[in-house]
Amino acid sequence: MTISDRTYYTLKRLHSLTGVVPIGLFLLEHFFTNSLAVHGAAAYNRASEDLASLPYVQLLEIFGIGVPILFHMVLGIVIATTGQANAGRHGYARNWMYLLQRVSGLVLVAYIIYHVWSTRLSAEVLRGDTDLFGLMANQLQHPAVFAFYVLGVLAASYHFGNGLFGFAIHWGIATGATAQRRAARLGLAVFLVLSLVGINSLLSFVGRPLRLFERAPETTAAVAGSRP
Questions:
Q1: Which of 50, 65, 183, 224 could be 174's S-S partner, Cβ–Cβ 3.0 to 4.6 Å?
Q2: DSSP single-letter state for residue 180
Q3: Domain locations along the chain
Q4: 105-150: per-residue pLDDT in tens?
Q5: DSSP character string of the chain
Q6: pTM for this prediction
């Protein structure tokens, strides 16, 4: 399928925008909420219940998350099948970034479908079970499921991080070579940070969290005990 350059440019801008707002904002919120699994089942389930109690939450889930994600997916497929997608116009690194963006997008389609089916549409959730921590913990006990979730976290983190780089270019934020290099580094940093947070959340569900930035309880107690 081929389209005019003007239409293609408009689609690219719209695609990058929806990837940041609202999808990117939802991704950040989702990663933050899942990171509370580090503190155990009670903290995670309490945060999940707080989100579920928000006013108009079902409308937000459908029209603020579901519809934009579906629109972003369809638009991405349209862009990728136009024949104007890459054509070797960029350097070696940019070509690889482009390829990984498309591959991560395809992985995310499968991952999102599975994740929604196994959580939001699971028998446990549909019958009102509020122990979402236990639900995730049971699923992630299976090595294949855990590996698939790790792949999904990496794909989502890269797709968003590199998508920020594309957003900066398509919307004229990073116009020069120096600005584009900085945008690429920012995207890489976002990818690495989100990957760490996301994988640590998965480890938390199976009882093996990495407590990299938390003060050890004994250190806190020792400091408190040393005070006059």
A1: 183
A2: H
A3: 5-226
A4: 999 999 999 999 999 999 999 998 889 999 999 999 999 999 999 9
A5: ----HHHHHHHHHHHHHHHHTTHHHHHHHHHHHHHGGGG-HHHHHHHHHHHHTSTTHHHIIIIIIIHHHHHHHHHHHHHHTSS-S-TT-S-HHHHHHHHHHHHHHHHHHHHHHHHHHHTTTSHHHHTT---HHHHHHHHHTSHHHHHHHHHHHHHHHHHHHHHHHHHHHHTTSS-SHHHHHHHHHHHHHHHHHHHHHHHHHHHHHTT----SSS--HHHHHHHHHH--
A6: 0.88
Specify whether the CB–CB gap between 157 and 119 falls below 8 A.
no
User: What distance in Å separates the CA atoms of residue 201 and residue 199, rounded to the nearest whole number?
Assistant: 5
Q: Which fold has domain 5-226?
A: 3 helical TM bundles of succinate and fumarate reductases (1.20.1300)
What are the structure tokens assigned to 50, written together?
Answer: 């707080």
How many Cβ atoms from other residues are within 10 Å of residue 18's Cβ? 20
